[in-house]
Write a sequence for this structure.
């Protein structure tokens, strides 16, 4: 039998290589509207392309199986962390989420390894279920990383959508900002001079709270003598380890508190 619950759990970690190693037969084939992929290498190449900057999360809605065949109706969440203009379900930018309903059949051998995977899909966002945006589920954690990517991309159209309108942001070095618009108004002139790239090292999440340890990498896009972090020249880099606490309400961020988590380091621009 195919241990589908374990398959889904592993798939949702994003470790495609381990999924292929543990669950697919050497002579497997994947059949979909876009074509056929043969063998582990064919599947590996397809997933490397499909998951380049996009995290795919399976959310099973109904599963039926017998000794050699399993049918699953799944709502598949796709979270973008990079620009994918060629994504098959539509162009995606960091921070975007698309949900697509799939019907998948898995044929497997006596060892429970998949020998054939067939998929069919509905149009994006048609007839799908939705989770609250952020929280502890694998899809919600992927959404949080997509939020970080949108913020790092200075995409004012996308990262504020993760906030409630009355969000409160406390940045201990600079004060407290009340409301989504106040946060946008703070960052817009800052991001005209510098780019902040956030790398999350660890994330702990519940339905009501997220705590992330992260490093913010500030890079000066041009000479910024009045930068809130201190004067910076074009190309200067400042690394700041932080702890960020996010309070959630209905899956959106309603409070943020950021504190230092060590000493900053400065990398001057090369001449």
């Amino acid at each position: 039998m195919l241990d589908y619950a374990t398959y889904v759990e592993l798939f949702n970690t994003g470790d495609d290589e381990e999924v292929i190693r543990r669950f697919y037969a050497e002579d497997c084939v994947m059949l979909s509207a876009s074509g056929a992929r043969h063998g582990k290498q064919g599947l590996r190449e397809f997933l490397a392309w499909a998951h380049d900057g996009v995290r795919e999360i399976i959310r099973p809605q109904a599963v039926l199986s017998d000794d050699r065949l399993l049918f699953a109706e799944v709502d598949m969440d796709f979270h973008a962390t990079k620009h994918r203009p060629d994504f098959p379900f539509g162009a995606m930018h960091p921070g975007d989420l698309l949900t697509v309903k799939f019907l998948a059949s898995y044929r497997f051998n006596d060892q429970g390894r998949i020998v054939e995977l067939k998929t069919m899909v509905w149009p994006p966002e048609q007839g799908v279920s939705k989770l609250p945006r952020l929280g502890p589920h694998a899809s919600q954690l992927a959404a949080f990383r997509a939020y970080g990517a949108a913020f790092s991309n200075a995409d004012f159209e996308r990262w504020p959508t993760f906030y409630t309108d009355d969000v409160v942001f406390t940045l201990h070095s600079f004060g407290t900002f009340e409301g989504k618009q106040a946060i946008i108004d703070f960052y817009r002139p800052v991001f005209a001079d510098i780019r902040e790239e956030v790398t999350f090292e660890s994330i702990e999440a519940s339905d009501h709270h997220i705590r992330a340890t992260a490093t913010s990498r500030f890079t000066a896009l041009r000479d910024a003598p009045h930068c809130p972090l201190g004067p910076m020249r074009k190309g200067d880099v400042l690394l700041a380890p932080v702890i960020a606490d996010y309070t959630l309400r209905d899956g959106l961020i309603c409070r943020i508190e950021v504190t230092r988590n060590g000493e900053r380091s400065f990398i001057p621009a090369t001449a």
